[in-house]
Design brief:
The protein is about 30% helix and about 20% strand. By secondary structure, the chain is an alpha/beta fold. Strands 4-5-9-10-11-13-14-17 form an eight-stranded mixed β-sheet. The protein has a five-stranded mixed β-sheet with strand order 2-1-3-8-6. Residues about 5-10 have low confidence and may be disordered.
Length: about 375
């Protein structure tokens, strides 16, 4: 059976996260969206749902770092987004603005982009005050410099990235936040010239394909060479399932995309990434009115993220050798370790040429 023959709505998700523990803060307890989260968690079979006496999340640390990590990754906290989180932030080169439905992710990616950027145990926190979160779309529509008003991407309208600090589809079965956002934007509640965007490594799109999305959401699937995905992306949907989900949502009229990341020059990388592009081409073949983009991000790490990742995954085979990398400094003096210029140039040229040759329907938005 080919990807074109698969009907994802008839398949069970390859990976579906169900937390073992749900913690609800006092501020979140009475909000309407919390009731929906509780309903979904109970339906999923969660029997440890605790209402906290205050707004602090306590009892998260175990006897060791590994025990703390394991417990946190199995915990969903329902909290209220603070005022500092509610203000949309610029998020180039992906979108005009970032808004957060949640922070934290249940997956076990050994290169995790969130490592070093989130404080404390890696609990997934979902925001119960979703009306306040989404109101940032209303206040910032028509503003921005990445897509809004630009020649290259102006057709996308004002764009709002939902997956900067979480994988919203990975937690959707127990939160419902993504469906709420897509439906309200699809109904033009915030105007007709706005678009949501999110990236996912999961495939549970059966609920999303039935939403009235108004073609105002772009669903991007994080894809990678088979060796990298199979070795480093624990707790996620496998690549064939992601591509089947890509076909399903594209067939339902969503704008779609590829986030090819993190690109790594592993042995045989040309052959492996070539096979990936061919698989994507097969997955989207015959889709009417296909709107497909590609964003390509090479692997990088910071000293802080390396320290966190080695604590989480002490036996990882992920290459994080500073001596074989080049330093890239931010305007604030922070350091990232990226591949040397020669390697970056070679990979960029290959991807640009092969994307156009193997997947001409895809519009490359950026390489970094």
């Amino acid at each position: 059976m080919t990807l074109q023959d698969m009907d994802l709505t008839s398949l069970s998700p390859a990976r579906l996260w169900v937390p073992k523990h749900v913690m609800i803060t006092r501020a979140a307890a009475e909000l309407p969206h919390t009731a929906e989260i509780i309903r979904r968690c109970e339906r999923a079979g969660v029997d440890d749902i605790r209402f906290m006496p205050g707004n602090a999340l306590t009892g998260l640390r175990g006897a060791s770092d590994r025990e703390t990590y394991a417990s946190a990754k199995n915990t969903l906290a329902v909290v209220v987004a603070p005022p500092s989180t509610l203000k949309p932030q610029p998020i180039p080169p992906s979108a005009d603005w970032r808004i957060d439905l949640a922070k934290g992710c249940p997956a076990h990616c050994q290169y995790c982009y969130l490592a070093g950027s989130l404080q404390g145990p890696p609990v997934t926190r979902v925001y119960a005050n979703i009306d306040d979160v989404l109101d940032g779309i209303r206040t910032h529509a028509g503003r921005g410099s990445v897509t809004s008003g630009t020649i290259e991407r102006g057709g996308e309208g004002t764009t709002f990235e939902l997956s900067c600090y979480t994988d919203p589809l990975g937690i959707e079965s127990v939160t419902g936040s993504l469906a709420t956002a897509i439906s309200r934007v699809g109904a033009a509640e915030f105007g007709s010239d706005v678009q949501l965007r999110f990236t996912t490594k999961f495939d549970d799109v059966a609920e999303l394909v039935n939403l009235d999305h108004g073609r105002r959401t772009r669903i991007r699937f994080s894809v990678n060479a088979a060796e990298i995905a199979n070795r480093f992306e624990g707790g996620t949907a496998r690549m064939p399932a992601r591509l089947a989900a890509l076909r399903s949502v594209a067939g339902a009229g969503y704008r779609v995309g590829l986030t090819i990341a993190p690109v790594m020059p592993v042995p045989g990388w040309r052959e492996q990434y070539g096979a990936l592009l061919d698989d994507v081409s097969e997955a989207v073949a015959g889709i009417d009115d296909l709107d497909l983009t590609a964003e390509i991000i090479t692997h990088r790490f910071t000293p802080a993220s390396k320290e966190v990742l080695l604590g989480w995954y002490p036996r990882t085979k992920l290459e994080m050798d500073e001596d074989s990398r080049s330093q890239k400094r931010s305007k604030f003096g922070g350091v990232k370790y990226v591949y040397p210029k020669e390697t970056m140039t070679e990979m960029r040229q290959w991807f640009t040429e092969e994307l156009e040759r193997r997947l001409p329907a895809a519009r490359l938005l950026y390489w970094t």
